[in-house]
TrEMBL record:
Gene3D superfamilies named among the record's database cross-references: NAD(P)-binding Rossmann-like Domain, UDP-galactose 4-epimerase, domain 1
Record's catalysed reaction(s): GDP-alpha-D-mannose = GDP-4-dehydro-alpha-D-rhamnose + H2O
A Gene Ontology BP annotation from the UniProt entry: 'de novo' GDP-L-fucose biosynthetic process
Species, as recorded: Puniceibacterium sediminis
Entry protein name: GDP-mannose 4,6-dehydratase
Length: 374
């Protein structure tokens, strides 16, 4: 008998990799997508199945985590064996701009799903995965952070996710639901949203290398993060729901780098050596040398990065480093892709896209490059 999974946030980075992974395992996969004024399924178009075909294995439903009746109806129709709650307003900086909406989606949205599962009498059938986050640690109390490190959230996003974390634990304890929290540290990929720092760097530097943009404006480049690859992390989301008993796990690489280091690696993959000059808000990155043919758009002396305080956060999470020991010992999970390999893959993908744009430009088709930042 095949299993059925429901993914909220299927159109996002993790949702797309998880859907691929579950389809390969033979699951029937249902996903909730939001209505948008433009197509928003780019990350899953390659696995989309025409609903007119007999028995498609991937089905999309319109819905929103702010709408209980809609969540209840979809759960009732799908009767899933597994629910992966990946949907969220997931941008930390944006959560300071839209705190109430973030709480509605990320905190109460989780409660709505859990309550709908219970209301429908699915609490003994349906296993539940909650996308918890290293942002819960915020002002860190212990290095590295483990499943028992105390939380100190530092943004409306993290506070909302803290509610979601505990309501998941509560439904497990109160109703015996199989409900797990994956406390995931930052994970990235070529499908990462363009306004998260790694993708902003790889995409921005590739555009600059191809002469499509002049400069990258960044916030706190001394922040330290433990970055893994999304493909490794969605495998772990599934593994967590295949155990005899539900439990919570930290998912991390156990290695930490600065945003600055990620900038240096990304530039190196483009044949650009950088010098950082100045301090604080006056710091800049200047091109020292260009080798190879990947960066015809820059020359030594170009200032390709400046600090812009608009990207500083009202309360910053300066450092995060996770301990994946429990995941390794209990589930046998270890990440397969290093941070450096992931950076190289992201640069390679963004370079292809920048080169396509540059080629069109050369031939008179000057398509706009979105300069929307984050
Ligand atoms: P993305 O931002 O790429 O994807 C978020 C998904 O949630 C998108 O499909 C988005 O839809 C959907 N969504 C947003 N608002 C709503 C809503 N109101 N109702 C229904 N769906 C909504 O995030 P990631 O894939 O990177 O992350 C997945 C989850 O894991 C998130 O919950 C995130 O907070 C959490 N997380 C992520 C980490 C990371 O490093 N990536 C680390 C730890 C936790 P649309 O495409 O229409 O915008
Ligand atoms: P984060 O990811 O806040 O950790 O949340 P993000 O990539 O946005 O920031 C990481 C660090 O980089 C610093 N930074 C900048 N960030 C952005 N976005 N833009 C900039 O210009 C910039 N300059 C420096 C940030 O200040 C921060 O310290 C991500 C999200 O995926 C969450 O949903 C998830 O829960 C956590 O990771 C784990």
């Amino acid at each position: 008998m095949h299993k059925t999974a429901l993914i909220t946030g299927i159109t996002g980075q993790d949702g797309s990799y998880l859907a691929e992974f579950l389809l390969e395992k033979g699951y029937e996969v249902h996903g909730i997508k939001r209505r948008a004024s433009l197509f928003n399924t780019q990350r899953i178009d390659h696995i989309y199945q025409d609903p007119h075909e007999a028995k498609p294995k991937l089905k999309l439903h319109y819905g929103d985590l702010t709408d209980s009746s809609n969540l209840t109806r979809i759960l009732s129709e799908v009767q899933p064996d597994e629910v992966y709650n990946l949907g969220a307003q997931s941008h930390v900086a944006v959560s300071f701009e839209a705190p109430e909406y973030t709480a509605d989606v990320d905190a109460i949205g989780t409660l709505r799903l859990l309550e709908a599962i219970r209301f429908l009498g699915l609490e003994k059938k349906t296993r539940f995965y909650q996308a918890s986050t290293s942002e819960l640690y915020g002002l860190v109390q212990e290095i590295p952070q483990t499943e028992t490190t105390p939380f100190h959230p530092r943004s409306p996003y993290a506070v909302a996710k803290m509610y979601a974390y505990w309501i998941t634990v509560n439904y497990r304890e109160a109703y015996g639901m199989y409900a797990c929290n994956g406390i995931l540290f930052n994970h990235e990929s070529p499908r990462r949203g363009e306004t998260f720092v790694t993708r902003k760097i790889t995409r921005g530097l590739c555009n600059i290398a191809q002469g499509l943009e002049d400069r990258l404006y960044m916030g706190n480049i001394d922040a330290l993060r433990d970055w893994g690859h999304a493909k490794d992390y969605v495998r772990m989301q599934w593994m967590m729901l295949q155990q005899d008993a539900p439990d919570d796990f930290v998912i991390a690489t156990g290695v930490q780098y600065s945003v600055r280091q990620f900038i240096i690696w990304s530039a190196e993959h483009l044949g650009i050596s950088l010098n950082f000059q100045g301090e604080g808000v006056n710091e800049t990155a200047v091109v020292a040398k260009v080798t190879g043919d990947k960066a015809p758009g820059v020359k030594p002396g170009d200032v390709i990065l400046r600090i812009d305080p608009q990207y500083f956060r009202p309360a910053e999470v300066e450092t995060l480093l996770g301990s994946p020991i429990k995941a390794k010992e209990k589930l046998g999970w270890t990440p397969q892709i290093t941070t450096q390999e992931m950076c190289e893959e992201m640069v390679a993908e963004d370079l292809k896209s920048a080169q396509r744009h540059a080629l069109l430009k050369q031939h008179g088709f000057d398509l706009p490059v979105s300069l929307e930042n984050g």
